[in-house]
Design goal:
alpha+beta; Lipocalin; 449 residues; single chain
Length: 449
């Protein structure tokens, strides 16, 4: 399970990574523990500094492919796509093909309505800085297949969405993360250039930065399969909203992206300007000590600034970031829907972001779990089955895959994604019901079997 290997690249001064202050053994032990607890199927952590590149891996990419992930393996990266979309937009600004202050509707078909607040138009700068006031997801998102939620959402659906949305705040006044906003930005750029989104990314980002694996075209042969828990899940496909989450990339490409942002690789003058533009700070966010730039989030503590972006899809999670003061970049990829941002922040600034203790074992004595087994009614036509396999507990809605749930407290378990929790109502007479916490929603169910 344990694997550490290094690649020293000719584009950097080669020495050793000993000058870095993070504890490499702690990183390896932590990701090993994540895999051992079955929270992640496999993990690859990449670090770049003036000394070269170093990779840490844990786990096996799948039950059918029992090998550790490689730097060239391709993952879904979700909202990390934003950095590529922002870089492409900045490149077009540098080339004077677009301007940040131009209203969005200047680039759209005349028949498409766009949101506005009074007389204030929606501008490209609002899309790239997540200050558009648009919701995270489009209101008309109704996927045919919830396991591939954006596959059938076309540009026409985007037009419908932005035509019916009314802004409740002035554009530019407040940070609200919006995948719809970045999806719209990516589409505007394709209209301006006459390219597909993939062609746009290749010409404006991948080719200038010499990236080898980043693409908007899904190639299952190059992908490591996504997982929820240890169960494989389908890949996500993208159409109209690709600019907000539709790229696939590798650890080696994302490390090179961080190197470009720290001026550690030689770029054309205009490409360097475009990359640097994404770091320009625009406004504060709702997160402590964190600003949003023209692409990157920027979190400052003490004298250090960490530039970062994360993303998550149905079966993957990604983190990419860099610390320009220490010339350190970091990428964390996993083919499970359980992120490891804490590892990335620890590597980039160990003093301000200490690494948590390894997660506790997900096992419970079988005798303790037996009392939870049964079927629970959680709605008029909704049931959930709780089953046990040795020292592991599972939850399954009839007709859907079975997912493992992990102990997080007394009589409390959580899905691997962490966004759904199950609390068992245990009394002297035994377990007679459950409470499900799904975000802010609470659902109570009675045991019927």
């Amino acid at each position: 399970m344990r694997s550490v290997f290094s690649l020293l690249t000719p584009l950097l001064a080669v020495s050793s990574l000993s000058a870095q202050t993070f504890d490499a053994k702690r990183v390896q032990d932590y990701i090993d523990a994540r895999v051992d607890r079955e929270l992640n199927q496999s993990i690859i952590v990449g670090v770049i500094s003036l000394s070269g590149e170093k990779y840490f891996t844990a786990g096996e990419v799948s039950a059918k492919d029992p090998r550790p992930p490689k730097p060239e393996d391709v993952f879904e990266i979700g909202a990390v796509t934003d950095i590529f979309t922002a870089t492409a937009a900045a490149s077009l600004v540098v080339d004077r093909q677009i301007t940040w202050m131009q209203p969005v509707n200047a680039y759209l078909p005349e028949y498409v309505g766009t949101p506005h607040f009074g007389h204030l138009p929606l501008q490209l700068v609002h899309l790239v800085t997540h200050t558009s006031g648009l919701p995270h997801n489009p209101p008309n998102l109704q996927p045919k297949d919830v396991s591939d939620p954006f596959a059938d959402f076309t540009n026409d659906h985007t037009y419908v969405a932005i035509s019916v949305i009314g802004l409740t705040i002035p554009p530019g006044s407040e940070y609200r993360f919006s995948m719809l906003g970045y999806g719209l930005l990516g589409h505007v750029l394709t209209l301006r250039t006459g390219q597909t989104f993939n062609e746009l990314i290749q010409t404006r980002v991948s080719q200038p930065l010499t990236l080898q694996d980043t693409t908007a075209v899904l190639d299952p042969a190059k992908m490591v399969p996504g997982h929820q828990g240890l169960q494989e899940v389908p890949n996500w496909h993208w159409d109209g909203l690709a600019g907000g989450g539709g790229l696939y990339s590798s650890a080696r490409d994302l490390l090179r992206l961080t190197a470009a942002n720290m001026s550690m690789i030689k770029l054309d003058k205009d490409d360097e300007r475009a990359v640097r533009t994404t770091q320009n700070v625009f406004t504060k966010t709702s997160m402590p000590n964190t600003m949003i730039g023209y692409g990157w989030h920027v979190t400052r503590k003490a004298l250090q600034a960490v530039y970062w972006q994360n993303g998550k899809t149905g079966g993957y999670a990604a983190f990419v970031g860099f610390n320009p003061s220490t010339k350190t970049g970091c990428v964390v990829l996993t083919n499970s829907a359980q992120g490891l941002d804490d590892v990335g922040f620890y590597i980039l600034d160990p003093e301000q972001y200490p690494l948590p203790k390894p997660p506790p074992s997900g096992l419970r004595p079988a005798k303790q779990l037996m009392k939870y087994e049964g079927t629970y009614q959680v709605g008029p036509d909704a049931k959930i089955d709780i089953t046990r396999d040795g020292e592991k507990l599972y939850a399954q809605i009839p007709g859907q895959p079975r997912y493992r749930v992990y102990p997080v407290g007394k009589n409390e378990f959580a899905y691997a994604t962490g966004d759904v929790r199950i609390i068992f109502d245990d009394s002297k007479r035994g377990v007679n019901g459950i409470t499900m916490l799904i975000g802010l929603k609470k659902i109570q169910g009675k045991r019927i079997k």
